[in-house]
């Protein structure tokens, strides 16, 4: 099936100014390096995720370089800071697209940035592979847009079915006011109803929010069996801690974005028994995840979160594409179009016709301050 992509008037105008300098084909530069772009929020409110991206991508490059590189050439990660902002993401996309030495781009972090930048990459025929943009709209972002994370639609539907298995009859939703959070909200609500679950509240917050007492007080009155969190681990830890102070005793369930040591460190006892899905789970059945966990700790002195693992996988499939087809933008796309059963740290990865990854998560919970498989 041919994927569709849509170019807004503003983006189309912007591309008129950049089309003249956009490279049609990429290649290894004269310096003998193979360059892969990385666009991430290196600064701003999402900088901790940008750091995870940077570490994961650079570790993938480090491993191939220590093994001799690709045909004797070293892989270099070229980093640009999109600040997690859609407008800045477009600027970065134009910069990468017009540089013939950038063979592919790993990024962006949030779905809003990916959707804003996708028309530029597609217009200039350079692969963009996102480690973390899970909004349903990314499916139709264009033929050169891929992602190694499953869609919000898949995750929310999977979690609604698990909620039913757990016996939840009434669930409240707390979600980030973004393409990411709204995608989770829409699908979980629909799937919950199909599974006989009543949604008793749906409360949003802005990215980076610190105070949740007001919405938690309203939710407490509804007496839910569980709270579904459609957001990230920092906010999840704050939600659980503030709910505890309000004597709100409730189960929590959420997506893979909650998987981080930071959730354990920040939430402490308040996040005990959290239930979540995880595609990256070292120490389980995925040998690649366990190897990556050790290599990451050796390199950086701390444990990786799920976004470091996703960035490592996204960079690794680009590296494999270059190994198989050479340092050429179109060859990278051709390889990814047929990627099947790639052994990643986040599972066995296969792309469908829309560039969406197909893989299955683990069911996890928190016991005694550690992530463990849910039994």
From TrEMBL:
InterPro entries: BCAA_transport, Leu-bd, Leu_Ile_Val-bd, Peripla_BP_I. GO terms for biological process: amino acid transport. Keywords: Amino-acid transport, Signal, Transport. Residues 33-354 form the Leucine-binding protein domain. The keyword Flavoprotein does not apply. Residues 1-22 form the signal peptide. The keyword tRNA processing does not apply. Belongs to the leucine-binding protein family. This is Leu/Ile/Val/Thr/Ala-binding protein.
């Amino acid at each position: 099936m041919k994927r569709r992509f849509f170019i807004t008037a503003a983006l189309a105008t912007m591309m008129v100014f950049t089309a003249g300098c956009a490279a049609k084909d990429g290649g290894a530069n004269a310096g003998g390096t193979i360059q892969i772009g990385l666009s991430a929020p290196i600064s701003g409110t999402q900088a901790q995720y940008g750091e995870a991206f940077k570490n994961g991508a650079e570790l993938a490059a480090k491993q191939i370089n220590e093994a001799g590189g690709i045909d004797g050439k070293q892989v270099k990660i070229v980093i640009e800071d999109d600040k997690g902002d859609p407008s800045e993401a477009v600027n970065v996309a134009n910069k990468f697209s017009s540089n013939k030495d950038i063979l592919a781009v790993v990024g962006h972090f949030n779905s809003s940035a990916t959707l804003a930048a996708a028309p530029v990459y597609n217009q200039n025929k350079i692969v963009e592979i996102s480690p973390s943009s899970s909004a349903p709209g990314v499916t139709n972002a264009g033929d050169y847009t891929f992602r190694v994370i499953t869609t919000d639609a898949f995750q929310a539907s999977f979690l609604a079915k698990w909620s039913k298995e757990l016996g939840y009859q009434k669930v409240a939703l707390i979600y980030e006011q973004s393409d990411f959070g709204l995608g989770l909200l829409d699908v979980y609500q629909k799937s919950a109803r199909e599974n006989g679950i009543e949604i008793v509240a749906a409360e949003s917050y802005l990215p980076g929010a610190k105070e949740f007492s007001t919405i938690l007080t309203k939710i407490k009155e509804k007496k839910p069996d569980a709270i579904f969190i459609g957001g990230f681990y920092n906010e999840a830890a704050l939600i659980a801690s503030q709910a505890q102070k309000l004597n709100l005793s409730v189960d929590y369930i959420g997506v893979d974005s909650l998987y981080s040591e930071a959730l354990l460190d920040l939430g402490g006892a308040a996040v005990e028994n959290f239930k979540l899905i995880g595609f990256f789970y070292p120490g389980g059945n995925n040998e690649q995840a366990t190897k990556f966990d050790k290599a990451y700790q050796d390199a950086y002195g701390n444990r990786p979160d799920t976004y470091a693992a996703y960035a490592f996988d996204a960079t690794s499939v680009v590296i494999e594409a270059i190994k198989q087809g050479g340092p050429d933008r179109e060859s990278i796309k051709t390889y990814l179009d047929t990627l099947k059963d790639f052994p990643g740290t986040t599972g066995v990865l296969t792309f469908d016709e829309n560039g969406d990854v197909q893989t299955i998560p683990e069911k996890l919970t928190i016991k005694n301050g550690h992530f463990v498989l849910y039994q």
